[in-house]
Write a structure and sequence with these properties.
single chain; alpha/beta; TIM Barrel; 8-stranded parallel barrel; 12 helices; 11 strands; binds zinc ion
Length: 306
């Protein structure tokens, strides 16, 4: 009942100027945290799975879990392939009932990116599935997608890319980077002027990757129970709000859920040395991830938009 496409949820977000949270999952606990968090906030949500997640959990295991969780949710859930770089995987996801796929051809030259993304759009549109494309490169490493240099998205090229491919949403590079180790100094900021120009030129739903906040309290919780994480800095809350205000309608979150999962896990194991039931050990991790999901949804302005 509750499977929605990216077009369903982002058309409204674009019109009403808020962003829908996209969260990566690779297991049961994370999936439940995402769905329960979205339901608690009465918000639409995008449940994302990447190639790395499939490699970890097994394609059928994860696709089935995610599909059923989405279908049974009380809020609209987009079942989404994150960073598809292989058209075979795109097809596999469409066949498995995904309602949205990202084709990431951003590491190819412009024409090749257009050519491959168009193929993904053709496959997807026959089944009513939405497509996210990417132009420009986001730094850092995300599973199989790694990039050393960051090429920011050019507004005019973005228009050409959207027109030639027929995508439904566009991931742009405006200075964010995948993972927790983004910026070495606080003054580095997102290129909001560029974002604004891309929005004015394309008028379409824009997507921000690499936008983890790396919440201080979660990093500190992990550190207090032995985590060795230092010099980490994410995007600030105010920067993320500005990005949404200026046209971002989908914001990806992965690292922050990982930080929450492991911080709570360290705390639970240290505090309960006699506990050996994995269900009890993993519960606080699920709860802390759900809190991150709910905080992010509120920040993006999609609470109550289900
Ligand atoms: Zn990404």
């Amino acid at each position: 009942m509750s499977l929605a496409t990216l077009v369903d949820v982002l058309t409204k977000a674009n019109k009403e100027n808020y962003a829908v949270g996209a969260f990566n999952t690779n297991n049961l606990e994370t999936t439940r945290a995402i769905i329960d968090g979205a339901e608690a906030q009465d918000a639409p949500v995008i449940l994302s799975t990447s190639l790395g997640a499939f490699n970890y959990a097994g394609f059928d295991n994860l696709a089935t879990l995610a599909y059923k969780a989405a279908q049974n949710a009380a809020v609209p859930v987009v079942l989404h392939l994150d960073h598809g770089t292989d058209l075979n995987l795109v097809k596999k996801c469409i066949d498995a009932g995904y309602t949205s796929v990202m084709f990431d051809g951003s590491h190819f030259p412009f024409d090749k990116n257009v050519e491959l993304t168009k193929k993904a759009v053709k496959m997807a549109s026959e089944k009513g599935v939405s497509v996210e494309g990417e132009l420009g490169t986001i730094g850092g490493a995300e599973d199989s997608v790694a990039s050393r240099e960051i090429l920011l998205t050019d507004p005019q090229k973005a228009v050409e890319f959207v027109e030639k491919t027929g995508i439904d949403a566009l991931a742009i590079a405006i200075g964010t980077s995948h993972g927790a180790y983004k910026f070495t100094h606080a003054e580095q900021q997102l290129d909001i002027r560029r974002l604004s120009a891309i929005k004015q030129a394309t008028k379409m739903p824009l997507v921000l990757h690499g936008a983890s906040l790396v919440p201080k309290e979660i990093v500190e919780l992990g550190q207090s129970f032995g985590a060795v994480i230092g010099g980490v800095q994410g995007v600030t809350e105010s920067e993320l709000k500005r990005a949404v205000k200026n046209g971002v309608n989908k914001v990806n979150t992965d690292t922050d859920l990982r930080l929450a999962f492991t911080a709570a896990l360290r705390q639970t194991l240290m505090k309960n040395p006699r506990e050996f039931d994995p269900r009890k050990i993993l519960k606080p991790s699920t709860q802390l991830m759900q809190k991150v999901v709910e905080d992010r949804i509120r920040l993006l302005g999609s609470s109550g938009k289900a």
